[in-house]
What we know:
Blueprint (H helix, E strand, L loop, with lengths): L11 E3 L8 H9 L5 E2 L3 E2 H5 L3 H4 L11 E6 L3 H15 L3 E6 L4 H4 L11 H14 L6 E6 L9 H10 L5 E4 L13 H8 L6 E4 L5 H10 L4 E4 L1 H5 L3 H11 L8 H18 L5 H16 L5 H8 L5 H16 L12
Parallel strand pairs: 1-9, 2-4, 3-4, 4-5, 5-6, 6-7, 7-8, 8-9
Amino acid sequence: xxxxxxxxxxxxxxxxxxxxxxxxxxxxxxxxxxxxxxxxxxxxxxxxxxxxxxxxxxxxxxxxxxxxxxxxxxxxxxxxxxxxxxxxxxxxxxxxxxxxxxxxxxxxxxxxxxxxxxxxxxxxxxxxxxxxxxxxxxxxxxxxxxxxxxxxxxxxxxxxxxxxxxxxxxxxxxxxxxxxxxxxxxxxxxxxxxxxxxxxxxxxxxxxxxxxxxxxxxxxxxxxxxxxxxxxxxxxxxxxxxxxxxxxxxxxxxxxxxxxxxxxxxxxxxxxxxxxxxxxxxxxxxxxxxxxxxxxxxxxxxxxxxxxxxxxxxxxxxxxxxxxxxxxxxxxxxxxxxx
Length: 339
């Protein structure tokens, strides 16, 4: 069993999200209590071709460990080759296989959740990667409950993956057809946890400590994975741990604390050095700023301003004006702990 599941531990994973869980955001979430990191998914072919744009997605700090690099593709031998290259570069704590991404451009290339419809290929990919990196690092997988409501086959898929050598399976409780709509099906996740002996990590609609505690107590999962809630409220990991330890929610964050993190995120992104100019860095941050604004009063007005922000100075000017209005009572003070 992977060490972060031993001794009664119940790890909180940061879900891999394309365009979101880059090196900087993972640093932030780790500091705020996330236990296990998984990179944005990377193309096996991009890794094999030593594409610099692909390779940057595999970067991580030692402080982020345990951390896994997630691969997608449909050719087991090529994916195993890519996994070995990643291990030579970075020595991650595990390799994760993406069998869950619902995005059309991934599915159309026979990657992600498309393999839930083709279990022989899924098994071939999983077994070849597991054998290809044996005695180096563990291999895990992430899936969805199925392709659509007529093909919910997660328990069967989990059994296949266990037999192929996967040491942990994360399950998003929605089908590929659902995307991110509707409610996550935790009954299927629970069934999977009782079908296999490897740890199951549940994913879907986890936004508070109460959500974590409920799933820990009512299902057989060994950990949970948090995605969209962390995008707008990365403190969810800290808050969840506080709730699990005390049974109480922590004091709500101040508006100033939220803006401090927003500024720090922007500064860290520039210091990373991935972007050629400050403008490019801030353009890439805009979607993250949109998510952060959902936890702030007058978020719609902020999103209009964030849509064109191109420098940290401009971001700080927005913050200064916003805080001045807030302190003058122009903004509502009703702020959710997490949404």
